[in-house]
Amino acid sequence: MNHYLLKLPYFPLFAAGLICIVLTPIVKKIGYSRGWMAYPVKDRWHRRPTALMGGIAIYLGLCLPLAYHVDFSGLISIFEMGGGLGYKPSFVAITWAGATLLFILGLLDDFLHIKPHTKLIGQIVVAALVTFAGYRLQWFTSLTLDTMVTLFWIIGITNAFNLIDNMDGLCAGVGAVSALFFAVVLGKGPIEAQVVPVALAGALMGFLVYNFNPASIFMGDCGSLVVGFVVSMLGLFYAENAKLPMASLAVPITIVMVPILDTTLVTLVRVLSGRKASTGGRDHTSHRLVLMGLTERGAVVFLWGIGGVSGIAGVFVDRTDTFTSPSVLIPLLVALLLMGLYLSQLRVYPEEEFSFLKDKTFTPVLVELTYKRQIVLVVLDLGMMAFSYYLSWRLRFDSTAFQFYFKVFLQSLPAVIVCKLSAYFAVGVYRNIWGHMSSDEVATYLKAGVLGTLLSVAAVTYIYRFADFSKGIFVIDWLLCTGSLLATRGFFRLSGDLMKRKTLTGDKVLIYGAGRAGELLLREILNNPDLRLNPVGFIDDDPIKTGKKLQGYPILGSFKEAPLLAGRHDVSALLVSFRPEDPERTDAIKRFCRKNGLLLKQFSICVLPVDLET
Questions:
Q1: What is the model's pTM?
Q2: Contact 200/62 with Cβ under 8 angstroms?
Q3: C-alpha distances out from residue 489 to 144, 266, 502, Å
Q4: Which of 19, 52, 113, 410 is a plausible cystine mate for 36, CB 3.0–4.6 Å?
């Protein structure tokens, strides 16, 4: 009975979690006594000395339960019989061996701080061992190409998890989420494949007890390298055994989307800004989320959520056919692309971003593309048109019928795209300013959607006589396409406004007057960071407005409550958005500012004549 329990897939989950919960405090105590500490430095996020080497507990929590399933003799046989040619060791065995080697490499780096290229060589050796053992992604028919891509996958994912170990609980949490979703998609596989993800999830969840904000211990490279390698092996094993080509490619990528997104964003921004991609910094996705205004815990949990959403998409792709999968994958990729574009615009360092591109021969072309952002919108709209049209067909017909109508969809897609793009240009969608969206522009987008649909119906009627088409397709397509048009423009409008609010710095001020003038003053403050003013809210003499919001900022109370509000919010100035008509009211405002040590500023809009003769 006990022998049977040891083989159940959920046994490693509890065993790994228990081992990690017990061992982590012991490792932490040893770390404090031996000086295994991470001290705050300029390019790191933590603010106080914290124990290192939590990866020891993670490794033991993972590998001790897995040791029961490892055929150690098989590891030796790959060298005697020729890996991938005569004998292929079990998945658990090769994962256990690679994790052990990278754990040792991580320990060396934590203790000796080895050079990046030395650490990379060690990772290449481990990845080569995996391919020598006969494990490959099976994404390409070419053995050479598939082997090289497999090496890149293992090394890339391993380093991606190493890079996201930059905030309390982030690497452990993202790794646990990825492991749990791999446990789901590998749930029908052999028992050896099931025990690895559940053991990893158990170890990481046990470690999170001590690593979540505020963390009392960090995992170090000996932990992050192990986590990244094991997750890469889970993706490799799934890809190798997937039944559908799309699932083989999409499922591993979606499940590990968070580290891929972070590594891609950080690498591109650093390289284009003239900084080394291998050096540490405070410009990761998590740091940018905090810069937006999220707390550290909020940023970490948000990225866990992104991992959960992309993991659900991966499970959906695993459970559905190739024709249905794009209906989930494309919206996910578009959303992550928009998120990446938004986060990349946040300035983390004082030097100019993308400075590497200055004074290059190709700079004029890039500058032209940057300033003519409508090109980005055209490309984005092109993709959303194709996706909306595809999804309308997929929603209209079931899986069996869609396979028949798929050829009709492909044949009519170019004509539909041409009609819609023509309608967008004719109505004036691309004449609007980037980041602005008024009621007039919303009306323009609605007109463009209607005209594009009408032109599409006319085109397919003329070309195909509307044979094999359904009117419902174009109704659904109009809803989806118009919705995506409004959603993308709304995203740029809202994200730009949110960025201005969250990155606003300067003296905290109260705005007196929550009317039209107060709204104009607030907009000027948000659009002109050189003023260095940071409003905490409004005060207004109209009691009906108290407790409400104007442009997202609260109306805190009346002028009588100003002394209490000024102290509570630590404001340094009062901005009057109107011109007081009563001199006594003006004197009262001045007395209040003198008494409370506040600066007093008056907002006004002047249209002055200019003497043309001088």
A1: 0.78
A2: yes
A3: 44, 25, 20
A4: 52
